[in-house]
Amino acid sequence: MDKISTLRRYGLFDAKVPRYTSYPPANRFEQDVGARHQRNWLEQLPAHDPVSVYIHIPFCRRLCWFCACRTQGTKTLSPVEGYIEDLITEIKVASELPRERLKMARLHLGGGTPTLLSPALMDRLLDAVFDAFDLAEGFEFSVEIDPTEAAPDLLELLAKRGMRRASIGVQDINLKVQKAIGRLQSFEQTQEVCDILRGHGVHSLNVDFLYGLPHQTVQSLSETLDQVVLLKPNRLALYGYAHVPHVSKRQSMIPSEHLPGPETRFDMSELARERLCAIGFEPLGIDHFALPDDSLACAAREGRMRRNFQGYTDDPCESLIGFGASAISRFRRGYCQNAVSTSAYRQRVQTYGLAGHKGYYMREEDRLLAGLVEQIMCTHGIDVSRLVESTEQSEIYFASLIDELCRQFADIVDPHPLGLFIRPGYEAAARLICAHLDAALSVQHTHSLAI
Ligand SMILES: C[S@@+](CC[C@H](N)C(=O)[O-])C[C@H]1O[C@@H](n2cnc3c(N)ncnc32)[C@H](O)[C@@H]1O
Ligand code: SF4
């Protein structure tokens, strides 16, 4: 049976499964867990372990139709100014809770559009972050950049304040596709921003682009790839477009009949993978590519690549503190998500100093599944020896799990002396396998609670 037929038989083209940027996925977070545990989890952060910091700026000057991120449109900076004041309060309150001052290993500004801040507002925000945390050795600062909203003086300021990585939103370069997703952005505009960044010493550039967009064809994606490569990125993230108009109302501007079907989407991702590998990019996880000397590619080769809310990372920190509306924090004992709308977020910060409202308390069984899911999403395989080290389960437990997976997915996974691996060419099934494990082990978990 050919690859497409095999994957079809396993349900790849019909399945709706999480992207597993966390386990459990954020839609399973429980009401009030965040608010209940956030303060305590922050207090318990050990000073000897550096943390990662994520800051969410949920505002955009334009609202692209395809975008599934929860963002708020604004023409002026006035709602942003009040929001930044509350962010600064949240950063101060949270950073003073641990017994000792924390070291920050990573700082990432995401959104929305962090670059819509004026230089003065950005300076104020960064002053607050750098006042709150010491810098760990090897500290890295990265920012998500919409090239149509990236003033040269702001880029200069970010570089002066230590930004060394940037993630640039491209999505597609084809004009017909850009019109159909409500996001016009010329190639020259994107190239200019890349040049400015490199001129300021920001040499690590990631480009986000999408397959499965309206009017996109395998041929048009191939042409977009030719142009994306001219931007000379070190990393690429090629996401499958998620069409969820019931969640993101503005996507109803995109008629579903203009979208390529699941098998064409698969052809698109295959084409991109082949083309990028042929010119020297290494495929990482389910949707990232990097040049061999890029730190993410090195981390992947050395088994250090991790999965997090931004996709893939070489960030080794156990704890991540998320600031801002809807930001998610990860602690050793669980996840905590801030109130999602900017108004609810601001009200919480003004009342309590912190804004956690949802979250998840990780039990031992969850930790086990999180380890399995992260391994599959990062390495397309399971290495039992590493799981035995990090969980309380025995090799015998994992042996039966591996047997079960090899039976269930007989045509796409193979056993391996250390566990199993997904056969080359069938990596697209990684999320399906995670979803299978999730369903199977979550049921066991429910049974054990019922007894
Ligand atoms: C949070 S957005 C920020 C991007 C930045 N504001 C810009 O416009 O360049 C980060 C990335 O999420 C991805 N994204 C947004 N909506 C998506 C969707 N519906 N399906 C898949 N990826 C999506 C896009 O690739 C985008 O670059
Ligand atoms: S893609 Fe970027 S600019 Fe467009 S709506 Fe989403 S976050 Fe805003």
From TrEMBL:
Q: Which compartments is it annotated to reside in?
A: Cytoplasm
Co-factor: note: Binds 1 [4Fe-4S] cluster. The cluster is coordinated with 3 cysteines and an exchangeable S-adenosyl-L-methionine.
Q: Where is the Radical SAM core domain?
A: 45-282
Reactions catalysed: coproporphyrinogen III + 2 S-adenosyl-L-methionine = protoporphyrinogen IX + 2 5'-deoxyadenosine + 2 L-methionine + 2 CO2
Q: InterPro entries under this entry?
A: Coprogen_oxidase_HemN (IPR004558), Coproporphyrinogen-III_oxidase (IPR034505), Elp3/MiaA/NifB-like_rSAM (IPR006638), rSAM (IPR007197), rSAM_horseshoe (IPR023404), rSAM_sf (IPR058240)
Gene3D superfamilies annotated for this entry?
tm_1862 like domain
Instruction: Give the Gene Ontology MF terms in alphabetical order.
Output: coproporphyrinogen dehydrogenase activity
Q: Keywords assigned by UniProt?
A: 4Fe-4S, Cytoplasm, Iron, Iron-sulfur, Metal-binding, Oxidoreductase, Porphyrin biosynthesis, S-adenosyl-L-methionine
* EC numbers on record: 1.3.98.3
Please classify the protein's predominant subcellular localization into one broad category.
cytoplasm
Which superkingdom does the taxonomy of this entry point to? Bacteria
SUPFAM superfamilies for this protein: Radical SAM enzymes
PROSITE patterns linked: RADICAL_SAM
Identify the cofactor(s). [4Fe-4S] cluster
> In which pathway does this enzyme or protein participate?
Porphyrin-containing compound metabolism; protoporphyrin-IX biosynthesis; protoporphyrinogen-IX from coproporphyrinogen-III (AdoMet route): step 1/1
By sequence similarity, the record places it as follows: Belongs to the anaerobic coproporphyrinogen-III oxidase family.
Record text on subunit structure and interactions: Monomer.
Q: What does this protein do?
A: Involved in the heme biosynthesis. Catalyzes the anaerobic oxidative decarboxylation of propionate groups of rings A and B of coproporphyrinogen III to yield the vinyl groups in protoporphyrinogen IX.
This chain's protein is named: Coproporphyrinogen-III oxidase
Its taxonomic path starts at: Bacteria, Pseudomonadati, Pseudomonadota, Alphaproteobacteria, Rhodobacterales
